[in-house]
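Action item from last meeting closed. Structure (178 res):
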C-alpha cells in the first residue's frame, strides 16, 4: 500500500504536464498548433537572423527542461509546481509574442527582423556599493541600410503597445546585409 502512496505525486505531476502539453498543442492562439510545428520552428521566410533565433530558442528550451526536471523531482509543493508551470507558460507565450512582433515589423517593409525580450540585471550603485535591479529589455534587430526617425518611432510604438510603455527598455539596431 505504501508503494501506491509514493507513486501518487509523480503520477499526478506527470498527468499535469501531459495536460499542459495537450493544451499547448490544441490552444487556438498558439501558432505552433496551427502550423503543426514546434517551439523550435523559426520564421521560414526570414533567414538573416536564423542562427540567432535558434540560439535563443535553444537557451529557452534548456530553461524549460530544467524547470520540467524540477517538477519531475517530486520534492516540490503544489504552489511551487504551479509557479514553475506559469514560468514555462510565460516562455512559450513570449516566443509567440516575439514572432508576432517580427511579422508586424517585417510588414513595414524590412527583409528580416529579430525581436528578443529578456531581463537584464543592472547595477545602479557603484562598484564598491552595488545596488542591483532588474530591467526588462526588448532588442529589435532590423535588416536595413538606413532607418528614418518615423520608421524608428513606428517600430518602437509596435513594441511598446505589445509589451507596455513604461515597463520595457527598447533597443532598435540596424544590421546591413553582407
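Sequence:
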Amino acid at each position: 500500500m505504501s508503494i501506491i502512496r509514493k507513486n501518487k505525486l509523480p503520477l499526478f505531476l506527470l498527468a499535469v504536464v501531459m495536460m499542459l502539453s495537450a493544451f499547448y498543442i490544441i490552444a487556438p492562439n498558439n501558432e505552433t498548433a496551427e502550423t503543426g510545428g514546434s517551439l523550435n520552428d523559426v520564421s521560414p521566410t526570414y533567414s538573416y537572423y536564423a542562427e540567432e533565433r535558434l540560439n535563443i530558442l535553444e537557451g529557452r528550451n534548456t530553461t524549460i527542461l530544467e524547470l520540467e526536471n524540477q517538477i519531475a523531482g517530486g520534492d516540490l509543493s503544489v504552489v511551487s509546481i504551479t509557479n514553475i508551470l506559469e514560468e514555462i507558460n510565460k516562455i512559450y507565450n513570449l516566443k509567440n509574442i516575439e514572432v508576432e512582433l517580427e511579422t508586424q515589423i517585417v510588414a513595414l517593409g524590412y527583409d528580416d527582423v529579430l525581436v528578443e525580450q529578456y531581463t537584464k540585471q543592472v547595477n545602479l550603485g557603484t562598484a564598491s556599493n552595488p545596488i542591483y535591479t532588474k530591467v526588462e529589455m526588448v532588442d529589435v534587430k532590423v535588416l536595413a541600410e538606413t532607418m528614418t526617425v518615423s520608421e524608428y518611432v513606428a517600430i518602437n510604438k509596435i513594441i511598446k503597445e505589445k509589451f507596455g510603455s513604461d515597463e520595457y527598455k527598447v533597443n532598435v539596431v540596424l544590421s546591413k546585409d553582407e
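Note appended to the action item: The chain is about 55% helix and 15% strand.
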